[in-house]
Design goal:
Strand content: 15-25%
Oligomer: single chain
Structural class: alpha+beta
Number of helices: 11
CATH architecture of the largest domain: 2-Layer Sandwich
CATH topology of the largest domain: Ribosomal Protein S8, Chain: A, domain 1
Radius of gyration: 20 Å
Distance between the termini: 9 Å
Length: about 350
Amino acid sequence: MRIDSTKERQYLENVFAKLGFTDEGGKLLADTLVDADLRGISSHGIQRLAWYQRMIKEGTIQPQNHAKIVRELPGTVLVDANQNMGQLAAVLGMKKIIEKAKKTGVAIAVIRNSNHFGTAGYYARLALKAGLVGIALTNTRPLVVPTNATQAFLGSNAFAFGFPASPHPFMFDGATCVVSGGKIQVHAKNGENLPGEWAVDKKRQVVSNAAQAEDILATAAFTEGEQKGGGVLTLGGKDEVNGNYKGMGNSIVIELLTGILAQGSISADTVKGNHDFSQFLMAFDPAFFGDPATLAADATEMFNRIRHLDHVPGRKIWIPGDREYRLLAENKTKGVLIDKKTYEEMQEIGQELGVDVPD
């Protein structure tokens, strides 16, 4: 079914208010989820709401806490999310480094004691709106089996990069494994099989049933002395011959820039009493290197050359960002797509909290 995004936003704002977030915080959280749904990234949209509510009830997320700046220099800032939602700390951090990058040319933020922060691209786009290049990284709960391993240890560890171009910015936003855990959740909710080689069991055999894969992810965490196993594959897939060690390397780089640099938990340890995700944000001013309009035009020309390469009949060559900006325009008019299971969760939450559910 489709729901008008304005109604979705109001519902979310009402829910977050009931869950104890400030008005400003609730509006920001709602915006990040609606933004994901509008761009067709349903894995990180309103389907995450029931999970957020469960973590609030468990005390993993503490809405009454406020993110704070621990220390800063002209080109760096360290933010403590204080166990509240990652979105709130990430926006605080990105706004600070946007200010700094306009003065110093480049700035970095690291966020500790955080939670899930939605789509990484949301923060890269904040930098783009300010005329800067934006980068956003996060670690996650352990979902990913390293090369030749049978246990999950690494996070899906999203990476987003935004660069100015026309008619829309270049916007890469993706996990450093074959697929995010959220996409498997969506397929499981819809009773579908997985369309690719996404997940493996404890014997490193490919799992096609989405519900089975979701069960594996729920218990895949690496635990000393226990033989829980299976998880999501790294980029490159199941076999080393296809270069999956490169996907593993990408994921480890993000572990270093997030959990290690923040002096928090690496992904593998976020299920051992601490649920402290970490994020890394960067913004830099391309104007230092050349005229911004020329740089954007040069990037646009390169993208157009790629789009018009000889290609497989009936297929289209997409540049990262093409699909989401097309869907953004379409879904603003038609409404966002909500699967049946997620809508049922919305109804349950609405009934529990006394919030009207959009139809």
